[in-house]
């Protein structure tokens, strides 16, 4: 067991006991007397209100003013708790709504300044969207650590067409259309890219120095990296008047909306590798979709509808 994990277990043990001795601590955690004394000193340095009593029934006690003991978390448990609090944002309406902001405020006030700074940084780098995530993403935690401590990763990325090795520097993670996505800087291509997290099958941290200007980016500023490549595809999507509300609920910085004869026209551009993302986006318009240009995007959309049709019995 790592030292920080043991000290958090000892803290919880101390708060549960009215009184304990060094021998109790030694037996409970299978440690020597000198190690137990060092941990007692560490607890006192951390501000745990202990005092000792000598004699036959002596030992260590917690000040009685601590009626409700604080709960102590390891750093990993703190990050997990932060994730749990953030998931409340998925709910449009919740009971005790006002209390959730208070809980988050108290939680952030209970952690160390270093951990708090990390959590506040993560606040602008994580978004859960509004759709429940259905796919398993075993590499999600590794991606999160690479975001907290900016790192260059070698990933094994699997799409329906092929499997490739990529070197990326993750910027953040967000959820949309029932999937986790990781916007990142592709080190080899020197371009901004978005990766589906469930398709990342393997991660290997590299010893390379992170790209400095990428470290400063988050989900709000990541599009500063977006540059239209020569291979990018311009598109025009016509929707009926009823489709405007859907567009206003969800659209992207490379899109714009203008009035057309039969309704509205969505125009923009995408990189070839983002075709699937755009096709999934178009599905939400359903019967409000009027026309799609160019033909390549239209064909991809029709093929996706055919695949759906073939799956339904």
TrEMBL record:
PROSITE patterns: WYL. This is DNA-binding transcriptional regulator YafY. SUPFAM superfamilies: Winged helix' DNA-binding domain (SSF46785). Residues 139-204 form the WYL domain. It holds the Pfam family HTH_11. It comes from the Bacteria. Residues 9-61 form the Helix-turn-helix type domain. One of its GO terms (molecular function) is DNA binding. Signal peptide: none annotated. Keywords: DNA-binding.
